[in-house]
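for the record, two folds in this file. i put them one after another cuz i was lazy. first one right below, seq on top, C-alpha cells after. the second one comes after a little note so u can tell where it starts
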Amino acid sequence: MNDLLNDIKTLKAVEENLASVNRMDYTKKLIRNMIEEKQKIVSDFEKENMSYDQYADHMKNVGLNDVA
C-alpha cells in the first residue's frame, strides 16, 4: 500500500513539473527513481519465488558458498 501511495505522490509531482520546462531534469529524476523502485520490487519478488536450485545458482556469484 505504501508503494501505491508513493507512486501517486511521485506521479502528482511529475504532473506538476511537466508544466514547467525548467523542471524537466527533476521530472526525469522522479521517473528514473520510480522505475528503479519498481525494478527492485520485481527483483525481490523473483528472488523470493526462485526454486532452491535457482537460488543456489544465484548465490554462487555472491561469494557466500565459501563460508562454512
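(here's the note) second protein begins now
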Amino acid sequence: MTVPVENELAAKVVMALRALPALGDFKVYANWGKENGQRLFAEGGCKDPRVIYAYVRPRRHEEYTNLTATVEIELHGRVDFNNRVMRVQPEDAYLEIVGLLEDWHGSIAAVKNALGSDFFDPVGMRLDGGGEWDVGEDKAQNFVLPFTVKGRVKKGN
C-alpha cells in the first residue's frame, strides 16, 4: 500500500516540531495521519492551552505529467495565556520554530534529511512570510507560519 506524500510530510513535520526543546509544553498535531490528528476541541474551541497544528495542503503539480510537486504547509500556533504554566515562554517556542524553518530554508541537505522519504525527494523549500501574533476572541495568542516544499514524487504516491 502506498502512503500519500502529504501523510509522510505531516508526520515528518510533527516529528521535527516535537523534537524542539521549547515545545515540550505544546501539543503538536497535523491534518494527515491518525497518529497526528488527536486534537481536542471543547464547545469554545481548541481545549489545548498550547498547541501547534501542522496543516499540509494536498500537493499541486505545476505542469502536466510531471512528478515534481509543491506542497504548501502552514504551522498554526495557539497559546492560551489564561493557562500559562510553562517551563518556556511562548515567544521562545515561536523563535525556535522560526529557527528550524530558517535552517531548512538555508540548506537543501537539511530539507532532504528532515522531510525526504522514499515517496518524496525535496528539491527546495520556501518561507512564505507571515508569522505575526494576533489575539483571538478567547484572549489566546495565535500565529501562522507558512512554507512551501517542492520535490519529486515517486510514481504511484
